[in-house]
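Researcher: Please generate the 3D structure of the following complex. Treat every line as part of one assembly.
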Amino acid sequence: MTLDFEKHLRLTQDLTRVGSWEWDIGRDRLTWSDEHYRIFDVTPETFTPTLRGLLERVHPDDVSALESAVALCRATHESFTCEYRVMRPDSTTIPLLGRGAWDATPGVAGRMYGTAQDLTERKRADEALLIANRRAQGLAGRVLQVQETERRRIAHELHDEIGQALTAVKIGLQRLRRKITDAAFGADIDDCATIAARALDQVRGLSLNLRPPHLDDLGLEAAIGWLIRHQCDASGVAAHFHTHGVPRRLRPELEIACFRVAQETLTNVLRHAGAEDVWVQLCCRDGTLELTIEDNGTGFDVAQAHARAVGGASLGLLGMHERTLLAAGRISIARRTPAGTAVTASFPLAVQGGRAE
Ligand SMILES: Nc1ncnc2c1ncn2[C@@H]1O[C@H](COP(=O)(O)OP(=O)(O)O)[C@@H](O)[C@H]1O
Ligand SMILES: [Mg+2]
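Model: Done. Output below.
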């Protein structure tokens, strides 16, 4: 069975919402396919296509872009694509993707041909995606905000309530110890006091990690300095910290976002990299805050780790991206030469009308 090409082409254009055209420039004669007429919502009986007639139906804001694209194609014989909107007789406006090319068939003079694709469904899908993205981002922002509030509350409670109770137990045991003369009983009390002291240290450590007071009281530079000492000192990894031009206080959301990115990155270096050194740089210049953390460890396949994280394997990398995005910043995680990983996050210092400049 042979294929009826005309029918086949008609059905294809109908299914894909793509109309086609051919333009005999000398006679200003446009020939449109059935689908092209349908997209413009006119019929061969009521409308004879010409370039002028076509441009009269194009949205006024899009006319010059389409005219220029066509003129350039005529002058250079290079193909073009151009998005424009057509205004139909029933006052609806349809977004189109126009493509055109010069007909270079030998013996053919002054001809162009091309297509017009109805983008309504794609635009609708793009818009739905945009709305869904905005919603997801709003939700993520809210979740992170609630998480910060909760962390601060738990940090205070650990420090003030449990920390103080443990301190009282420790002091009480020490006082009791002084009154005890029985050696065995005294040793038991010493053990209890040691356990209470260790628990107190753990509670303090937990509280500091959840919400270091340096961040609230002293600002970002001091908080990251503390973080490096707190995380790296006992780990055997040599930390090198450089700063340049960082104001003492920045927007609170910016301080928290940058601190949490530094915290997660350093934790990753210590947990996964097997590095000997880590270099941390915090700089402010040209209205941008930039945090760079580099290690000379094993390095890793970032795209693969990201795909695993999206699949639910981990949260750290995703959290860093989310926090940076919410603070209107950018983050890049890449292999470092000659070895290891380099993480760079940059954030705009100023915001205007709730959005970063
Ligand atoms: N600096 C690094 N060096 C080597 N591997 C890293 C580094 N940072 C991240 N990774 C890899 O990326 C993975 C995902 O990191 P993350 O999302 O923070 O999850 P988690 O730390 O809980 O495993 C880690 O399991 C590790 O394999
Ligand atoms: Mg991690």
